[in-house]
Design brief:
With 179 residues, this protein is α+β, with helices and mostly antiparallel strands. The protein has six helices and six strands, in the order E-E-E-H-H-E-H-H-E-E-H-H. Strands 1, 2, 3, 4, 5 and 6 form a six-stranded antiparallel β-sheet that branches.
């Protein structure tokens, strides 16, 4: 929660149940590519092994709060998109920690999680985003009030239990190295 960065997603549907996204730090020319997110339907998420589920976060709050927006998409289309997205789960890896080193992508990928409740996002970041995109988080929240809030499948949002999964560098011998 102490590290919050804006994440602009550009996604494609691979199947009805699976999306893949590239993430940029901004929605402008010369923005830095900072990561990827895989998004799956609830149906597919339920089939994942329990250890795998720990890497995923729900999208219910980001949708219902109005925090997640699709700039330039007409209201009717955005509402339909958000109705589908509210039940999905994402696994997000940031490969460039722009908040720690804005000049170069140093270090190993970090697993990022989504917001799940009021009071978690730094309001100044959200206000700045709203101003730049010409959107209103409060207005989006009101527009989505009719979207049902799903029950979260156990295993998602594991960081809420006080621990988070992350990767660590480990040096290992190279197998099958031909000299």
């Amino acid at each position: 929660m102490g590290r919050q960065v804006e994440a602009n997603h550009f996604c494609t549907h691979l199947t009805e149940d699976f999306h893949q996204c590239v993430i940029y730090e901004a929605n402008q020319k010369n923005a830095k590519l900072i990561g990827i997110e895989y998004i799956v339907s609830e149906r597919l998420f339920r089939t994942l092994p329990e250890d795998e589920k720990k890497l995923w976060h729900s999208h219910h709050y980001e949708v219902k709060s109005g925090m997640l927006v699709a700039p330039g998409v007409p209201d009717l289309g955005e509402h339909a998109f958000m109705t589908d997205l509210v039940t999905t789960y994402g696994k997000t890896w940031h490969t460039w920690q722009v908040d720690r080193n804005p000049d170069f992508p140093l270090g190993i990928p970090q697993l990022m999680m989504g917001f799940t409740a009021d009071g978690q996002v730094r309001q100044a970041l959200l206000d700045d985003r709203d101003r730049r995109f010409g959107v209103s988080t409060a207005g989006e929240k009101k527009n989505r009030a009719d979207i049902p809030t799903p029950r979260i499948v156990p295993g998602a949002n594991s960081w809420q239990g006080g621990t988070a999964m992350q990767v660590h560098m480990v040096e290992r011998p190279v197998k099958n190295l031909k000299g």
